[in-house]
Each structure stands twice: as structure tokens, then as C-alpha cells.
Design goal:
The chain has about 80 residues and is an alpha+beta fold. It is built from 3 helices and 4 strands; from the N terminus they run βαββαβα. The protein has helices at about 20-30, 55-60, 75-80, and strands at about 5-15, 35-40, 45-50, 65-75. A 4-stranded antiparallel sheet has the order 2-3-1-4. Strand 2 (about 35-40) and strand 3 form a beta hairpin. The two termini are about 15 Å apart.
Length: about 80
């Protein structure tokens, strides 16, 4: 059984984005693992495993426009089902 069930991925488009600030927020305020927050000051790619993907979406939407949102259930995938 996985500790964190949902693979959550999205793009944030905005201004003055800072991947270090975003990473720090995730690490200090959200429960999960496998965090990637990479990009530049206008576009950041997020990848995060969590049990509360709505909190990821809520936070990221405060930073800019979010799109290409993917939330996959990794437990279903491990059973060979569509995530």
C-alpha cells in the first residue's frame, strides 16, 4: 500500500514565480513526497505525490494560471487499472 496515493501534476503560468519558494511551501505545508517544482519565473512544472491533491491545486492557483492538470490514482495503476 502506498503512503501517498495521488500523483498530482500541473503547470503554473504566472509572473515572478520562484521554484524555491514554491518547494519550501510544499515541504512546510503539504503532506506528500516526490516533489518536483522546476521551471523559471513565468512557468513552473509541479509533480507531487499526496493524499490531498485539492490542496496542491488550491495553493498553485494562488500563484498564477494552472493548467495541464493530471491527478492519477497510483493504487489503481498498480493493479493494472486506468489511474
Amino acid at each position: 500500500m502506498l503512503e501517498f496515493k495521488y500523483d498530482t501534476q500541473l503547470l503554473i503560468e504566472g509572473e515572478d514565480l520562484d521554484e524555491d519558494v514554491i518547494s519550501d511551501y510544499f515541504l512546510n505545508n503539504l503532506q506528500g513526497d516526490c516533489l518536483l517544482a522546476v521551471g523559471d519565473d513565468e512557468l513552473i512544472k509541479i509533480h507531487f505525490h499526496t493524499n490531498e491533491p485539492w490542496k496542491v491545486l488550491e495553493y498553485c492557483s494562488t500563484l498564477g494560471e494552472i493548467y495541464d492538470i493530471v491527478v492519477e490514482d497510483m493504487e489503481r495503476q498498480s493493479r493494472g487499472l486506468k489511474g
